[in-house]
Amino acid sequence: MLRTLLLTLLITISANLNAQTLVQLGLNKAYHGVSDGYTLFAPLIGTDVYLINNCGELMHHWDTGSKLGGNSVELLGDGTLLKTSRENPLPPTTITGGGGGQYIELIDWDGTVLWQYEYFDSTTIRAHHDAEILPNGNVLILAWDLHDYNDCVDSGRDPNFLPDSVIWSEHIIEVDPTTDQIVWEWWLWDHVVQDFDSTKNNYGVVADHPELMDLNFHGTPGSTIGLDDWIHANSIAYNAELDQIVMNSRHTGEFYIVDHSTTTQESASNTGGNSGMGGDILYRWGNPIAYDQGNIIDAQLFGAHDVQWIPDSLEGPNKLLIFNNGWQRIDPDDWSNVIKLELPWNAQTMKYDYNAGTAYGPQSPYWEYVDTVNMLSHGTMFYSGYISGAQVLYNGNTLICDGAYGRLFEIDTAQEIVWEYYNPIIQTGILNQGDSLQPFALGTGNPVFRAKKYPKDYAAFVGNSWNGTALPIEGGYPIPYECAGFASIDENPNSVFSAYPNPANSNLVLETETPLEAEAFICNSLGQRVMTFQLTGSKTELDVSQLANGSYYLFVSGMETIKVNVLH
Questions:
Q1: pLDDT tens digits, residue range 482-510?
Q2: Mind listing the domains of the chain with CATH numbers?
């Protein structure tokens, strides 16, 4: 007999961002082929961190106090969280860009802060977005550095590109948590070229120096996004095999790889390290306009996030994964895609292959996920204009964080969605199933910066006790809560029924691929039966006009459960 499978079907009241959006908060889909593990996420405008299972049930929860988090969070193998955070309210600062942080913290399984490092002052530096743990236990921190008008002009910045009289550049520091000492650092400002002021030492032909950053490039032609927040890096990742760091820039439409094997002194120069290039850019990809080797049709990354190396054990060496938001894409339509790239690393030369006078290869990804066809539960196609990320999982699946809408979903190797979950947490608290979401930023009020999934045998889970409720985070779920459970998902790989329209106003149609005779009933969120009826044939129409607005569960005897919403 087919076991129960929780299936949620819903649509949006309106695609207009001024309207409320009705989604199925919490678990939306759980099908055969979903990887067996736990998903970690921190709501963008919240303070706490959550770990859920494939049923959307809370397994573990970190109460991190009053400090806002919302950006990078990672669960280390010993059960410790690596987390970015900031005070609420934040002390006054001249660096106010999105994703701004203040602290980097290590928090144990029980919520105790083991280490807190503040990298922030009111005028010149500020940690932001991301941090990365190294194999030696040190922590890489991504940060802004402010350069005033005189510094910018003295370095060859065109004054016309200084409407706010400053630039926020980027740097990376490595901190030893046992001593709080900065043991290595890299500053982009040491690796710039410009063709505006010939009296400066860094004057040169931009196209001849792809290893340097054009100080006067600030986004695609005609853009003003990078005039102060010049680069707006939003993620860093580390490759231990190569001893290299990759950093992604939202505003320039590129990611950059630099050599970590250098000393701090070498990182400020163009010599030293494994590649012999010091701290110069080893490799870049996404927008060859930035180094005068292409035009607008050659741009491939648009506001991207979460660049990372794919573990060699999954797809071989020299592969990168990135969430390409599609923000300010040259197409008339907004759409996101997730891509995989094979990088042209040459182990003999210890450099990335590059033909002078061209753009860095490859010309295109070797894998891509895109969905420009299906209208999603939150009322848009697959498009997240900011935040977001992705992760290749141990079984070949890919976890994707559609961050602007708080939507986490997993696709299998055939790119079919096998799991989907909507974050039920907003700034003011936790919502109920069937509640409406209000607009926020470029999406809805439940954004998630990034999510990570860990297999059940991950070392962090060994010997630690769960503190979660083993129930959904959101309220308003039916009692008892029905979920397929991982053990039974593979026994019912395909849904038998479809229900539409959903939300329903007066009539709800239940349709099957083959004729069927079965008893069915509808329960409210408290588990109380409100309708009983008989399915006959392949299509049954129900009158739900007398039901109050809200979420209901349609039970088909011995087969499956369908979540429906009623909205008059």
A1: 774 333 333 333 446 677 777 788 888 88
A2: 496-566 (2.60.40.3080)
